[in-house]
Amino acid sequence: MATLRNIMPISRDDAESETGWLAIPAAGEPEIRIGFASIEERRRVLDWLNDGLRAGRPGRLVSEYPLLFERNASAVHLTVWENDAPVAFCTLWAVTFRVGVHRLRTGLISLVYTDPAARGRGHARAVAQAAIEQAGRLELGLLVLWSELDRLYRPLGFDRAGHESLLVLDALLLEQAIDTARPDPGLRVERVSPADWLEIERLRGFRTCQLELDGGELARARTIPDLEVRVAKDSHGMRAFALRGRGDDFQEVVHEWGGDPEAALLCCQSLLEACAPWNELFLMTPPSHDPLAWRLRQAGAHRVHQPMGWMRIASPAAFAKDIAAMLPSLSEL
Q1: Do 56 and 71 have their domain in common?
Q2: Can you give the pTM of this predicted structure?
């Protein structure tokens, strides 16, 4: 059974035994460390993680996840060590979702990884359980992750959440949808420029639910490699945007968009034209009746139901407080 030790800062409750002495694991005993004891230990863990997940591309993982690894105090890294070597890892990111005018404190678990040579010993479950416990200490009401591994997360108290779907898009279907929607002929589609991001954030702000990011986090998110962005503009300014790709993830998926659905169709068409030799893209759609998704379904887009979200309560007290602010009638539950 792995022992837990906080690194930077060290918590007396977690790091000391009942006698007051520092609890040091026996040689070879798995140990879970929260954070990094030094810059050298951080480099060692990230190099090992990059070799496992992005072999042959040094530094690639950090560039794909700048919000987790570049001086982010809200990201907690947990590593299982065995025989003075990292063998499993995950990150807990403490975030806030805005739901209308309310806030929901949430922990996002990501990059759960076990070294191939150490699999089958329960390390992934141990490091995920440590992240759950850490989320409770941070008073995060919910924990959310995306995975296909039912056998790992269901025993840890997670349940399936969300109803994401993918719409299959090809050139002919987009042409049909655009012909039906008849977007303004004065619209022009361009690659995103640095000056466009402020307007993209304004359009994102109309969503009922969204992840809150500050200006510095937004600036770092724009540097993610293989992120393709198109914006549609007319004489009055930006009308829509669409994003495809995010590092090695979502290479063939339009995962975020906003603005007028007719203009967003043109952005999707431009993204498809730019990603040859692929001859189709996928549009990630929410369970709500989104107008862009509706136009594509009307044109005959095939839907692939692919829910991958998992959720569980981390801190019941924190969750109850956030929900009571949204729904005062539940404040006594």
Answers
A1: yes
A2: 0.84
